[in-house]
Amino acid sequence: MTTPTFDDRDGYIWFNGSLMPWRGAKVHVLTHALHYGSCVFEGERSYRGNVFKLEEHTDRLFYSAGVLDMKMPFTPQQINDATNEIIRANNLTDCYVRPLAWRGSEMMGVAAQSTKTNVAIAVWPWPSYFSPEERLKGIRLDMATWRRPHPDTAPVKAKAAGLYMICTLNKHAAERKGYDDALMLDWRGQVSEATGANVFFVVNGEIHTPTPDCFLDGITRRTVIALAKARGYKVIERVIMPEDMSKATECFLTGTAAEVTPVREIGPYKFTPGEVCRNLMADYDLATGKTAAAKAA
Length: 297
Prior knowledge:
Blueprint: E1 12-15, E2 18-21, H1 32-36, E3 39-41, E4 44-47, E5 50-51, H2 54-67, H3 76-89, E6 95-103, E7 117-124, H4 132-137, E8 139-143, H5 165-176, E9 181-185, E10 191-194, E11 198-203, E12 206-210, H6 219-230, E13 235-238, E14 250-255, E15 259-266, E16 269-270, H7 275-288, H8 292-296
Parallel strand pairs: 8-9, 8-15, 12-13
Antiparallel strand pairs: 1-2, 1-7, 3-6, 4-5, 4-6, 6-7, 9-10, 11-12, 11-14, 14-15, 15-16
């Protein structure tokens, strides 16, 4: 069965305050966001009808819009209510949620003070970002070529569409070589993150993760850090150089799409998914409600 493209599906999209048929959610070719990257977005997951950390995601959407000098035409509560409305309208419970805000076509040029800020929310079925088999055995990452930029050169704390261009390039290059993803360094040559997820390493029973000073301090990242501490693991945020990966026995990624995904290889470095990965995968599934039914049974 052919998977439908994202512009040709049944269902509804919440678009500037109203539900509209999926195929009718259109923007003009001269939209500012298409030419200049003036778009911010979020990636969220609904488990059993509840969007995990919805308020935190919405708050970050508004923060990102503010960083890009975009004024949101709705309140955070309206966006939260709209998110739940569009999930119900599409008769979904377990799904991916994509809210986004972008500048329209009222002006064409670098300056965009008179453009309208548009907002849409789309939802669609999406199980695990990686298959269950891949999660259990660990995925393979290449070492990326493109690096995370200096905070003085880009709005690195915003979840802005334009910042993901280097992620696309790195992921394409990795997949061409047979890898699942790529690990990105920052402008200093320090370990930063994967193309769409944060990274953690287990060294001597302790969990180490890069300090998020030039990339997103992910909502899932913060959740997993709290879960790890609740289990009694020591979590250390620090500078991690590529050669430090040789000391790690386990490695995993975290993100809304990736959830908690073990890694078995990053370039020349090898890891064996073990107890820490298994525990945090299970804890995260319980925290999101993904395995609530199994727990109750």
